[in-house]
Design goal:
binds manganese (II) ion; 10 strands; three-stranded antiparallel sheet; alpha+beta; about 500 residues; globular; five-stranded mixed sheet
Amino acid sequence: MTKNINEVIKQIESFNPDTEADKIKSAWEFTQLAHTGQKRFSGEDYAEHPYEIASILASWKLDDDAIIAGLLHDTIEDGGAEREDIVALFGEDVALLVDGVTKVGELRFKKYTEDHFTENLRKMILYMARDIRVVLIKLADRLHNMRTLVAVKSEKRGRIARETLEIYAPLAERLGMGSVKGELEDLAFRFAYTKDYEKLVLESKTYYKEAEEHIKKMKHVLLRHLAEEKIEARVHGRKKHLYSLWNKLKRDGEKVWDFDKIHDIVALRIIVDSPAHCYSALGIVHAHYKPVPNIGISDFIAQPKPNGYQSIHTKVFGPDKRIVEVQVRTEEMHEQAEYGVAAHWAYAQAKTSGASNEMLNKGVAVEKEKLSWVKQLVEWQKEFTNSKDYLSAVKFDGLNHRNFVFSPKGDVYDLPRGATPVDFAFTVHTSLGGFIGSAKVNGKLVPLDYKLKSGDVVEIIKSKKPNGPHRSWLDFVVTTVARREIEKHKRQASHG
Ligand code: MN
């Protein structure tokens, strides 16, 4: 094995001095053992795959458990490991993450029916709500698989690439992970639409080069004027990803690609240290390069995109009267735009570990963070159903027919429409159904046949002694699990 786990540990220590290096090392040894003798399509040792995933997760600044779960993510499913071993050596939390990744991995998108797609996306959201790290590990897994897709048999590549474009790239976008989305799309583009990909690589070359030269000139001028105004700034060119370039070129359905219409093939990006300086920098840009009339300025700082993206975008006349897009943002907005959810996660972690002497506080902080994610997911779900783009591509009716309800702790449960607190109790645990004393929804007592709505927080108040299940509940329960358990109990009661 050519991989050295100390490289990953070094990477982790740069943002997390409390990392347990020994635990990471032993997870790596465990992984190598579990995959002994296994090879990837490329011929390299299988364990190189989980190693790369751990490295990606470390670059996203995730916590030890997530990185360990990344190392172990295939050891049960594809390797020789047992779940009990993972629990014994690395704890239940890591084992739960591995379970989650395996389950998300089972969501295959072989059939391109809309129902299928919706159902799988829904499940994905659900896993995401339970623990966002599961989806981040899955994204890292997919990213590495895409980076090595060339080694896979050609007849399989197309399906994997399309699946990436349809599910994983949009998911990364939803999570605000711009750089992951862009890389996934470009890797998939090559195998999903090979002819167009090759044509675009060839035809776009001169346009990229030309745009880069314009940007270089502007960079020079702007850096000088920013320095004069005492604004600390980084300025660089951002190349548009091939896949989004392709989408833009063929947007109007024209056969011939018109590159002259694309103003942001390479955009100029200015990164400053505060939001106030974003506006000053914008002023400096407009003082030296006239803004293009009628295209307008988009202020995503004042009005962030739904996934949290913030920046100011403007279009100006650059050298040779060519239109150039300029984007201005702070360092923090930049992190957020590139790493989205992962950046949030790392930030929350840093904050909570900073307060580590107060264990109680820490617990509360982590719990709150979890809850706010859950709230955001509910928001996203609404957005999914309103968004025209998505509606035209797929039907999200599946989402409308389900209810996402929450336990007081913030766990998410997915119930069909018409579900009641009794359905909820049986879904949480079949044994809880026998101890239903009463039920509260959003803090208020409700009858047991109350119809739950998405977003409800449901609390079952347990009876001291077994209190059911009651036969009469069959009149209103809608889940199979509740119906089955109540009927089972009815049979047992009549026999005994
Ligand atoms: Mn994998």
